[in-house]
Design a protein that fits this description.
Chain B: One of its GO terms (cellular component) is plasma membrane. The structure holds 2 protein chains of 2 kinds. By secondary structure, chain A is an alpha/beta fold. Chain A has 7 helices and 10 strands. The chains are: A alpha/beta, B alpha+beta. Chains A and B meet through helix 2, strand 6 and helix 3 of A and helix 1, helix 10, helix 11 and helix 13 of B.
């Protein structure tokens, strides 16, 4: 699958400062970053360098202290809660290191979650899409299981299926293999590479694993909140 | 969507069994008390036999004379005032006169003494009210005019005096050494029906009182039936004019007369509410009652708010995930409100069961004679309303607090909004 030059995400002069009564912590400093449509980008850096903060800003889960985030060329800082939620729902799928599955819901219900917030989608169609997403990650036989009944690798595959169910253009993955052993990690990495290759899904992945990062198209390195490579 | 919310709500309830039990106990116990009180209230002032047409009935049982220097003289109404002046009113369909309070009378069954409440009434009493006759008939106008010694007795009186309802009609009952022929047996009237309750009803003309007295005050009451519910204000206005026309018995001492024809509830609330018998007294009484009910609900609601806040914030990860995948603050507020209403509905069902049990106990204990408290449609509707109100009251703040949680903080398990 070819990548297109058109940026799907654009971060300009981003600064993120966490302020408490006594301490000011600069989490990100002057970040300028463009993610093209269909790219697979990895972000690396030591713990506390701002990788997850950067991913949260890309995912519209947090606001920068300074600078602008643009999706499809449109800055989002003036968007309302409803507009941001709509954008997250349609455009972005998240995969978290600790899976963040809802333990009280069965696998199928977890995967269906993004579709619940999509207007005009009937329950039958939601179910079909969720089943198709589970099929893609090879978990069709686990639809009625609960997260606690699955292994770590299976849980992460459910989390990927959930991210896929809404057919987002972008998947933001925060250390998706961080909690898995090497075999499981490889499986998940292959899954993400397949999605990027076969469906053209733009993927931004935070990782500590150099080997995995090298498999992606571009590597961004952060150090102390600044982009160093 | 709703199904998803309900599934989550059920799981959350099962997950925290102790807190769920405490919450449900608080809700159901509060509701039980409220429902029992409301069932009593409904039983006393709702449209039940014999006061079935409460929307058309008006009651006059108080004639106040206000002293010039302050203070008042309260009494029931004089017989002649009702029988002559009120019965001449043009707007009502019918006006009935009866004793304001039943007198205690004694009957003997073998060696046993039977204490009975006896009320004297006119013939119209049976027309403005809807007694449930199990046997026989009411006494009529000619019998009242003739001061015939006839009586209508309650079902319990028939059982206690004659052994059964069947066959009581036509027999003689001796009350306070006066013999009456039983012409009818009616379903028991509970004591809370203050204007109509008795064990034995006999013609008003059998009294030894001087019925010719022209005193405005006396020992009687009027029950007025309007032609329609819409006609009630016209009847009240005509009655007010009638009172305004009455000359003061002693203008040197008294400033004015106060008496109103009031619907059942207003009349009762005025009776228990003190001196003011104005038409607005029931609104005031209801406001106070509503406020008390609200305060009564507030404590368990605050407890529930506290439990809900901690229970909601424990789910910050879920809130973060839902926000990340497109839930708006409004949607999340809706979800948590639905969950809370689900919890309170569960508590409501339990409360309804507890209230049904408590009312059954009250009925079977006969703590209130002839009481038949029941959870009817009105009580159920009220319960549903209270439950929803309770659910909203205790769920709104946690839902609001949760919806303000930032997604990125929620995902990290940071509960600060």
């Amino acid at each position: 699958m070819q990548t297109s030059a058109a940026p799907v995400l654009q971060l300009t002069d981003i600064e993120k400062i966490y302020q408490t009564k006594t301490i000011e912590t600069v989490a990100l400093h002057r970040i300028n970053l463009t993610i093209g449509r269909g790219e697979f980008v990895s972000i690396m850096g030591p713990s506390g360098c701002g990788k997850s903060t950067l991913l949260s800003l890309m995912g519209l889960l947090d606001e920068p202290t300074h600078g602008t985030v643009a999706v499809d060329g449109r800055p989002v800082q003036s968007y309302s809660d409803k507009e941001l939620a709509g954008l997250r729902n349609l455009k972005i799928g998240f995969v978290f290191q600790s899976y963040h599955l809802i333990n009280d819901l069965a696998v199928l219900d977890n995967v269906e979650l993004p579709l619940l917030y999509r207007p005009g989608l009937g329950s039958k169609e939601r179910r079909q899409r969720a089943l198709a997403a589970l099929d893609k990650v090879g978990l069709s036989a686990r639809t009625n299981h609960f997260p606690s009944q699955l292994s770590g690798g299976q849980r992460q595959r459910v989390a990927i299926a959930r991210a896929l169910a809404g057919a987002p253009e972008i998947i933001l993955a925060d250390e998706p293999t961080g909690n898995l052993d090497s075999v499981m990690g490889e499986e998940i990495m292959d899954l993400l590479l397949g999605l990027n290759r076969e469906h053209g899904t733009t993927i931004v992945m935070v990782t500590h694993d150099e080997q995995q990062a090298l498999k992606t198209q571009r590597l961004i390195r952060l150090f102390d909140g600044s982009q160093v490579g | 969507m709703l199904w998803n919310y309900l599934k989550i709500a059920w799981k959350v309830l099962l997950r925290r069994k102790f807190f769920t039990a405490i919450s449900l106990f608080g809700i159901s116990f509060t509701l039980m008390i409220l429902l029992v009180v409301y069932a009593f209230f409904d039983y006393a002032v709702g449209p039940h036999r014999p006061e079935l047409r409460t929307d058309r009935l008006l009651f006059v049982n108080r004639m106040q004379m206000l002293y010039k220097g302050g203070g008042q003289n309260n009494s029931s109404v004089g017989y002649a005032f009702v029988n002559q002046q009120m019965k001449a009113l043009r707007t009502p369909e019918k006006v009935s006169v009866s004793e304001a309070n039943p007198g205690t009378a004694v009957a003997y069954v073998g060696q046993h003494t039977l204490k009975l409440d006896q009320r004297r009434t006119d013939g119209a009493f049976w027309q403005v009210l809807d007694f449930d006759f199990l046997a026989g008939r009411p006494y009529n106008l000619p019998e009242v005019r003739a001061a015939a010694h006839v009586a209508v007795i309650s079902e319990t009186t028939a059982r206690q005096y004659f052994g059964a309802v069947a066959g009581a009609v036509g027999q003689t009952i001796e009350v306070d050494a006066v013999r009456y022929r039983v012409v009818g047996v009616v379903h028991d009237v509970p004591i809370v029906r203050l204007f109509t309750y008795a064990d034995v009803w006999v013609p008003i003309t059998t009294t030894t009182d001087d019925l010719r007295s022209s005193n405005l005050q006396g020992a009687y009451q009027a029950i007025v039936l309007a032609r329609s519910a819409a006609d009630v204000p016209r009847v009240q206005a005509e009655y007010d004019q009638l009172v305004a026309r009455q000359p003061l018995p002693d203008p040197q001492r008294y400033e004015r007369l106060v008496s109103h024809a009031l619907p059942l509830m207003t009349n009762l609330t005025a009776r228990f509410g003190g001196g003011d018998v104005g038409p607005s007294s029931s609104n005031r009484f209801l406001r106070v009652l509503g406020l008390l009910a609200l305060l009564f609900m507030l404590l368990p609601a605050l407890n529930l708010v506290n439990i809900n806040v901690s229970r909601t914030l424990e789910r910050s990860g879920e809130i973060g995930v839902r926000k990340a995948f497109g839930a708006t603050a409004r949607r999340l507020t809706g979800q948590f409100l639905v969950e809370n209403i689900f919890l309170t509905l569960l508590g409501g069902v339990l409360g309804l069961g507890l209230a049904a049990g408590a009312l059954h106990l009250l009925n079977s204990s006969q703590f209130i004679p002839h009481s038949e408290f029941a959870l009817n449609g009105r009580v159920f509707g009220m319960a549903l309303g209270v439950v929803l109100f309770f659910g909203l009251l205790s769920g709104a703040y946690p839902a609001y607090k949760m919806s303000k949680l930032q997604a990125v903080k929620a995902l990290k398990g940071d509960n600060a909004a």
